[in-house]
Amino acid sequence: MKQDNHEELFPVVDEEGNILDAATRGRCHDGHSKLLHPVVHLHVFNSAGELYLQQRPAWKDIQPDKWDTAVGGHVDLGESVEQALRREAREELGIAGFTPQLVDRYVFESSRERELVFTFRTVYDDPVTPSDELAGGRFWSVAEIREHLGRGIFTPNFEGEVEKVFASCSN
């Protein structure tokens, strides 16, 4: 069975994104250290205004089986936010050549971890091919997403940022 690499190194940052140290995924996600580490989220819309969501696989150490942002992943040690965004988009959905727009940067805290989240959005109409890192994915209408909010099928990160992402589309 697949599993996350608990020895993978993440940068430990302050709330401005300045690198302070490095720590393993296992330490960052142990529920005790709460070391702030950066992640990227990419919300992928098509021209019809539908939003692609990935389904997290059962083997993930955080939020298994939940529906989540199209692309989400950690910034590796030595990697910039934009490099991580493009790497994760390529690895998870096989997409490239997109133009990301920054929506928000915020600190998310759960019982297991603290993340500095860089949230982006893009419009992408080329094929999307979920990798074996995911349990699958599909485009959802805005109405369908709103209908399912608060029902335990989406990750808390996604539910916390989706309305801001929708609002950014009308700007």
Enter the CATH topology name.
Nucleoside Triphosphate Pyrophosphohydrolase
The coarse silhouette is globular
Residue stretches low in confidence (pLDDT < 50, at least 5 long) are: none
Number of domains as seen in the coordinates: 1
Content-based structural category:
alpha+beta
- The percent range for strand residues is 25-35%
Number of strands: 9
Please tally the helical runs, counting DSSP H or I stretches of 4 or more residues. Answer: 4
Quaternary structure classification = single chain
Describe the largest sheet.
7 strands, mixed
N→C terminal distance: 44 Å
Helix content: 10-25%
Return the CATH architecture. Alpha-Beta Complex
| CATH classification class | Alpha Beta
The CATH homologous superfamily corresponds to Nucleoside Triphosphate Pyrophosphohydrolase
Rg over CA atoms: 15 Å
Mean pLDDT: 93
Along the chain, the helix and strand elements come as EEHEEEEHEEEHH
